[in-house]
Amino acid sequence: LSALLVAFPLVAQAPQGAPAQGAKALSLQEAIEISLKNNLQVGIAESTREFNKANILVEEGAFDWNLGASAKLSKTKDMTTLGETTTFSRSATASLLKPFEWGGTFSATYAPTYYVQEPGLAGGKAYDGTLSASYTQSLLRGFGREATATRLLVAKNGAKVADLSYQKAIIDLVAATESAYWDVVFAKVNLENKQQSLSLAQKQLKENEIRVQVGTLAPIEVTSAQATVAQREQDIISAEAQYLNAKDALIRALYPNERPAGIDTSDLPAVAPIAVEEPASERMALERRVELKSAKLSLESSFIQERAANNRLLPQLDASVGYTGNAATSRNTRI
Question: How buried is residue 335: exposed, middle or buried, by Cβ count under 10 Å (0-12/13-18/19+)?
Fold first, then answer.
C-alpha cells in the first residue's frame, strides 16, 4: 500500500485506446501496480527500511530501566556451650539501574536479610537491610546526547536514509515501467504508420502501372515505385521486430515468473504544453531529490560520530550524589 501511495502521484493520466484483439489490455496504471507488486528490488528496499526501524528500538534499549533481583536461603548450625543453635537466614537483593541520554546514571539497591534462630537454650529473630541510591553525572567525557547516544542518533538517520532509498526504488521503478510502456506504445504506433506507408506505396505503384499502360508515364517510374514498396515492406519487418521486442521487454519487467501470452497497451500519451520556470524548478529539485536528502543525513551521521570521538578524548570528570540507609534489629534472647 505504501508503494502504491508513493507511485500514484508520479503517473500521468492518459486517454484510453482500444486494445488489440486476443491480447491482455494493460493500462499504464495497471502496469505500475503489477511492477510494484512483483519487483524484487522494491521488496528488498522495504525489508531494509523495516530492519533499520527495528535497529532504532535496539539502540533505544540501551537507555531502558534495568531491574535485577536475587534471593538466597541458608541454614547454619553452631555448637556452643549452651547447646546447638540453628540459624535460618533469608536474604534478597533488588537493584534498579537507569542510564540517561545526557550522560547521567541512576542506580538503587535494596538488600534485606531476615534471621530466625532456633535455640538449644537461646533463640530469636533479627532483621537487617540496606537501601542505597545514587546518581552520577558525567561533566566532560560522556556528557551530552551525542556522546552517549551516538549509535541511537546514527540509527535514526540510517532509518531515514533507508526510507529515502525505498522511495527512490519506487521512483526508479515507476520511471522504468513508464519508459518500457511508452516504448511499446511508440513501437505500436510506428508499426501502424509503416503499414499505412506501405498501403500508400502500393497505391502509388498501381497508379504508376496504369499511367505507364496509357502512355502518360515513363516505365522507370514503375520500377521506382516497386523499390519504394519493397523498402516499405522492409520497414514493416523492422517495425514488427521493434514492437515485439518492446512488448517482450515490458512483459519480462512486469512478470518475472508467470507471464501472459500477450499484452496490448490501452493508453495513449497525452500531449499538452508545460510551463516551466527554471528557478522554481531548481528549488523543487533541490528540495525533493532523495539522493540529496540521503547525502545530507549521511553527512550528519559522520559529524555526530566525529563529535563523539572528540568527546572521548576529554578527561573523566563526574559529579555524584547518593544516599545509603541501614536498618537492623537485635535478636530477642530467652533463657
Answer: exposed
